[in-house]
Design brief:
The complex is a heterodimer of chains A (546) and B (312). Chain A has 546 residues and is α+β, with helices and mostly antiparallel strands. Chain A has 15 helices and 23 strands. Chain A has three domains: 128 residues, Periplasmic binding protein-like II (D-Maltodextrin-Binding Protein, domain 2, 3-Layer(aba) Sandwich); 109 residues, D-Maltodextrin-Binding Protein, domain 2, CATH 3.40.190; 225 residues, Dipeptide-binding Protein, Domain 3 (Dipeptide-binding Protein, domain 3), CATH 3.10.105. Helices cover 29% and strands 21% of the residues of chain A. In chain A, α8 packs antiparallel against α10, α13 runs antiparallel to α14 and α14 runs antiparallel to α15. Chain A is globular and about 80 Å long. Chain B has two domains: 75 residues, no CATH class; 218 residues, MetI-like (MetI-like fold, Orthogonal Bundle). Chain B is mostly helical. Classes of the chains: A alpha+beta (546), B mainly alpha (312). The interface between A and B is large, with 72 and 83 residues.
């Protein structure tokens, strides 16, 4: 008997299934209706003219003093005593900052009438409370010279705050302006014991924006801080929509669900091809920043045969970096001529970019004894083939693209490059352990350059670029200069010392500049005033939605 | 049945213990060490003083056995410590993600039941007919096309071309439709074919013929015998399926920016956030164990032979 012989009803047990559906539907409705959309009109906290911005993530508890929160969010909510613009310190919560002649004292004159987002007043006592909270665990900021050089601080009067130093530290104002930790938190937000290391009660700051709502993994809603001391933002507010997948963010912008994709630091929320598609599409606007930081290739100067200056120079000259950058970034990034671009303080030195001279590269390798045997493609010396390893972060598409081009270009002059892609953490560990011939790194960008990036070169544990200079014959002298320049009080001497340091690095051929990283943004056509500041920053104060 | 339940419940403990051991050891076999990850998360330098401080803070300076029992004691209370990022309790992060993932899984089950039932029953009713062929095509496509491709295809059609549904997020009930459909498709293919084959198989069994001979009405035979018996293999695998839906949501959640466990674990792995990784492993393993237990109970309820021990 076949099944077809049954003349059955198609829904033999429909009732239980209906019951199932009802239960599941109820659970779903309960669950999803609990997550209110930020654009729901009846929600009182949602402002009037707002935009939706895609970001890869928004972390944590919005603490201004720790690294748990994202730098750009800290800048939205909190202010520092001084700001930084075009390599110069500019007033922020302090109207002025006076540095004593010996460099051992900075007096901040605070802006009167500043209020926190909860309406409470800001004064020097509040600054001290913030400093107390930060300096109770200085080990968390031991990479900052301003923390390790600081001797003390005190309230002079309600609107004057003084910081004293054990040794002069010229980059103090630069570091006071960074996204963390020296941002001011409102009195009511500190924990009972006055600390912030274990968390804060609420994100109360003096910044242009205040946080209205945060749903972990989904969105964060910001609106104008009504008590903001500076020029009020042009938008009423914005929502950061957390979209970790680049393709999804791109689709969301196309579908009109979001207004702006802001690709900053190394978020890679929007790859070059997607960005170019937006550039060609007249329904969208695109924006590209100037240089933010430098992408470099580090040559391990401590390992043979790369410990030979002639070999390193040959490698640098064998690379057609102009074409490499054009192939990977098309027009969105430019080839880097030196470790730091000219906008960085003390770095406008006119250092000449390494030219593409494959013939000279071959001649240099010949001179160094690395001969290309007849009929072979890899050079050798005393029977040892010229074979080196290039390690890269396999999750980083830029690394991968650069690595493949470098392998091909060095192959042209008879150097065999073995590529090894590793996941991020393993790659970083290898870099710090110094177990590589070639690898990739980046400079830190403003406001940390050049002093913080260079400081990493002077101490073994800090930087992936350290081995790019550690094998130089004059390394000890170089490291000493890097340390000394931080405490130099004469502007002219400081400039001269930086010239010596950066020239030594450039002529050491251990750190090969590749491209100047840019930030990119794609937006709906009706968005104007999309700006760029630091590499980690997302400035929205002048953004307008027409 | 009572004895069956007690026996199954007791089997949970050794499995849970094994899982805890695995979760604890996981972080010790990763290529980068815990201290380096912690210091990186807190932007601290890798100096001997900082390493010693972090080891003391995380209890890594104690003997490994002591570390394990300390960790187990806390894990038993669902306390996996603090996330390296955001100063949040791992248990809270996991529970928040679990809620979203469960909602996605429930919606997936709605698709699964509805479409599997429709495709399976109608395909069995008319083998090689339109629905049967359609289900075959869906089965081939569903298994051959990677899940993220399916996700982006659905986004392209329903969000970008037609504009009916949103692309990403979890802002309304509408937002669950595309991710749940994507997650369901692969399983629908398997279960619809399974149901169809089982039903055709059961329709040939002598008990159907016997029931017919007893004069029972066809719909009754179908409902009480054929359909119920055909559900048995599906009930048996439903526990694993449920677990797979929870774990398999990793890709779908990332494609649709759904804030569930999948998104959390992806970010935790990329940022080497070990406490979250450990919490996730334990949580998902427990879900697997409980889901399997429930599917055993379901099978036992459907099949008296299992209940009475003859099939175990």
């Amino acid at each position: 008997m076949g099944f077809k012989e049954f003349k059955m009803r198609p829904n033999p047990s429909f009732k239980p299934i209906l019951a199932w559906f009802s239960c599941l539907g109820l659970i779903l409705f309960w669950g999803c209706s609990g997550e209110k959309a930020p654009e729901t009109p009846d929600k009182p906290t949602v402002p009037k003219v707002t935009i939706e911005v895609a970001v890869a993530n928004v972390h944590g508890d919005f603490n201004p003093h720790l690294y748990d929160a994202d730098g750009f969010v800290q800048v939205f909510l909190y202010d520092s005593l001084v700001g930084q613009q075009n390599g110069q310190s500019v007033p922020a919560l302090a109207e002025s900052s006076e540095i004593s002649k010996d460099g051992l004292e900075i007096v901040f004159r605070l802006r009167p009438g500043v209020k926190f987002s909860d309406g409470s007043p800001f004064d020097a006592h509040n600054v001290k409370k913030n400093f107390d909270a930060i300096m109770s665990h200085p080990e968390d900021y031991d990479w900052m010279g301003v923390v390790t050089s600081m001797e003390g601080y005190e309230v002079v009067n309600d609107l004057t705050f003084k910081v004293t130093f054990k040794v002069p530290y010229y980059a103090a104002l630069q570091e006071f302006s960074s996204a963390r930790p020296f941002r001011m938190l409102g009195e009511a937000a500190f924990m009972e014991d006055g600390s912030t290391v274990s968390g804060i009660k609420a994100p109360i700051g003096t910044g242009p924006w205040k946080l209205d709502q945060y749903e972990s993994g989904q969105y964060a809603v910001f609106s104008k801080n009504p008590h903001y001391w500076g020029q009020s933002p042009k938008l009423d507010g914005f929502t950061l929509r957390i979209i970790p997948q680049g393709e999804t963010a791109v689709s969301s912008l196309k579908a009109g669900e979001i207004d702006l994709i802001y690709d900053f630091f190394e978020s890679e929320l929007m790859n070059i091809s997607s960005f170019e598609a937006f550039q060609k599409d007249e329904n969208f606007k695109t924006f590209v920043s100037g240089p933010m930081f430098t992408r470099v290739m580090t040559i391990n100067t401590t390992r043979p045969p790369l410990n030979n200056l002639i070999v390193r120079k040959a490698i640098a000259l064998a690379l057609d970096r102009e074409n490499m950058v054009k192939n990977v970034f098309h027009e969105t990034e430019t080839v880097a001529s030196s470790y730091f671009f000219s906008k960085i303080p003390y770095c406008d030195l006119g250092l000449k970019s390494y030219p593409y001279e494959p013939r000279m590269a071959r001649a240099l390798l010949d001179a160094a004894g690395w001969i290309l045997p007849e009929g072979q493609s890899v050079r050798s010396k005393d029977g040892t083939p010229f074979e080196i390893g290039l390690y890269y972060d396999s999750t980083n598409v830029v690394h991968r693209a650069f690595a493949q081009i470098i392998q091909a270009q060095l192959g042209e002059v008879g150097i065999k490059v073995n590529l090894t892609g590793e996941e991020s953490a393993a790659y970083l560990s290898r870099g710090k352990a110094g177990d590589f011939d070639l690898n990739f790194s980046v400079s830190w960008g403003e406001p940390y350059d050049p002093h913080s990036t260079l400081n990493g070169l002077a101490t073994k544990s800090e930087s992936l670029d350290y081995l790019g200079v550690a094998g130089l014959p004059n390394y000890d002298e170089l490291a000493q200069k890097i340390t000394d320049v931080l405490h130099e009080t004469s502007e002219d001497l400081r400039q001269e010392t930086y010239r010596e340091i950066l020239t030594a690095i450039h002529e050491g051929y251990g750190i090969v500049p590749l491209s100047y990283k840019t930030n990119r943004a794609a937006a709906q056509k009706n968005l104007e005033g999309v700006e760029f500041h630091f590499s980690y920053d997302l400035p929205l104060s002048n953004t307008v939605k027409r | 049945m009572k004895r069956f339940l007690i026996r199954q419940a007791f089997l949970i403990f050794p499995v849970a213990l094994l899982v805890s051991l695995l979760a604890f050891s996981l972080v010790r076999v990763f290529p980068s060490d815990v201290v380096a990850s912690y210091l990186k998360a807190h932007q601290q330098t890798y100096t001997p003083e900082n390493v010693a401080m972090v080891k003391a803070r995380l209890g890594l300076d104690k003997p490994i056995i002591e570390q394990y029992f300390d960790w187990l004691k806390n894990a038993a209370r669902f306390d996996f410590g603090l996330s390296y990022y955001g100063n949040l309790k791992v248990s809270n992060i996991i529970l928040m993600g679990l809620k979203s993932t469960l909602q996605l899984t429930m919606a997936t089950i709605v698709w699964l039941l509805a479409v599997t039932y429709f495709l399976g029953v109608y395909a069995a009713k008319k083998p090689n007919g339109l629905v049967d062929n359609l289900s075959r095509i869906v089965a081939i496509l569903g298994n051959a096309v990677p899940i993220f491709v399916v996700g982006f295809l659905l986004i392209q059609i329903f969000a970008l071309k037609l504009g009916w549904l949103p692309v990403s997020g979890k802002l309304s009930l509408k937002h669950v439709i595309l991710p749940s459909l994507t997650l369901a498709l692969g399983n629908i293919c398997v279960y619809a074919r399974m149901l169809r084959n089982e039903m055709l198989d059961n329709a040939e069994k002598p008990y159907v013929f016997y029931a017919k001979a007893r004069g029972l009405r066809t719909p009754w035979i179908f409902r009480k015998h054929v359909f119920k018996n055909s559900l048995l293999p599906m009930a048996g695998t439903s526990g694993i399926c449920f677990g797979h839906l929870i774990c398999g949501s990793v890709i779908v959640e990332n494609v649709f920016a759904w804030p569930g466990l999948g998104s959390i674990i992806t970010y935790a792995i990329l940022s080497r956030n070990y406490p979250v990784i450990q919490g996730y492993v334990v949580c998902v393993a427990l879900i697997f164990i409980v889901a399997n237990l429930l599917s055993d109970i379901l099978t036992a309820l459907l099949d008296p032979r299992v209940r009475l021990g003859s099939a175990l």
